[in-house]
Amino acid sequence: MWLNFIVNTYSFMTEHEKNTEQKILDAAEDVFLHKGMSGARMQEIADKAGINKALLHYYYRTKDKLFEKVFEKAFKIFIPKVTGMMASDTPVIEKIKFFIDNYMDLLTRHPFIPAFLISELNRNPQILVSLFEKNVQLTRNDIIKNFDKQIQTEVKAGILKSVDARNLMVSIVGMCIFPIVGRPIIQGVLFENNKKDYNEFLGQRKESIKEFIVNSIKA
Amino acid sequence: MWLNFIVNTYSFMTEHEKNTEQKILDAAEDVFLHKGMSGARMQEIADKAGINKALLHYYYRTKDKLFEKVFEKAFKIFIPKVTGMMASDTPVIEKIKFFIDNYMDLLTRHPFIPAFLISELNRNPQILVSLFEKNVQLTRNDIIKNFDKQIQTEVKAGILKSVDARNLMVSIVGMCIFPIVGRPIIQGVLFENNKKDYNEFLGQRKESIKEFIVNSIKA
DNA sequence: GTCTATACACTGATAGAC
DNA sequence: GTCTATCAGTGTATAGAC
Fold first, then answer.
1. B121 contacts in A (CB within 8 Å)?
2. Is the whole model's pTM more than 0.90, yes or no?
3. For D10, which residue's CA is nearest its C1'?
4. What pLDDT, on a 0 to 100 scale, did the predictor assign at position A84?
């Protein structure tokens, strides 16, 4: 009977703790992503999480530690996806098409992460150092080497025009990310700030990019 | 004699005033570009300008007003250049090559402006509204229409493959800007954080982009 | 125009009760 | 774990002397 109570209490506590911690992380993500490290307020995060500042500091002692968690999560969502794109051994063009479809979907689901990463990293590139130390696999650059090797093989086989792997990757990611991070500008200048038109533009852009790239690199 | 003194004093004053104002603007640009609106400190701007906070508020009454000036300058350096690219009536491919050379040079000279614009505009898209009202020509979208018309003409003439003007523009600018705003990430992940290697990469990228685009759109 | 001194609000963080 | 109350530090902005 009392054991049952303890068990219930315990399971209730952990469940509850988990919820509070998760609520905080969700709220922190929301605020940090939109306001950035320096613009975010602990008070606003607490409000969004439905708790108070003291409890916020009880879970994550400082603003820096909370930011670090949010940043790491955001980073891990976006970057490994890019390097992972080059891992499989399907043909290059097929791989690129698959990547663009998936990456654009990811960007549409998390439209504020790229601008957040760009902003915070340009202001403090140091963040990456500790992150790289904790996740060595993120810096494994044999992946790009393998991708380059595969490209050169297909070039020799007459499938592709001669292209540099890193230039190609930067171009692909740039074409995917820019319409998202540059949305306020592009939508304003090229689409008379019409949100609906811009969403349509984003919807068809996947195909547009794929065609653009294939046209460029296919032999 | 006393007239001479007044004139000298006056000319000295305006010259001096101009210098102080310019010093403030330079310092403000430096700080805002690196720290953003919320991260910038009036104290730091005053220090960099060699004056004190009180004088800062004497020239620009509030932080917002000072930020506005910096933002407007940064915006005008980068955006009209893009729309201006489509103004001349030289052949499309020639125009694109010319644009890429000039835009990449501009980006190299002001590497922090794009991330600054992206960051601030994603956090507060409202900034653009007042800016557009003050500079109506920025929203003149007949420019893009003319560019599109020119493209379709060259398509019919068998010079170009069928391409959409806006998709092409977004792709070009994205390919130019991403290696700059994403430098910390790209340099870290693809270049083992080697600054020298990355500078070389940037040096050859102009040619790489041009070749990539021409390969894609040339009929 | 330029300075020193200061008002006043806000923010991150902690103490202590429950 | 969660709350209220509060502190110490920092930030923008102004007052007033020169």
1. 184-185
2. yes
3. B41
4. 81
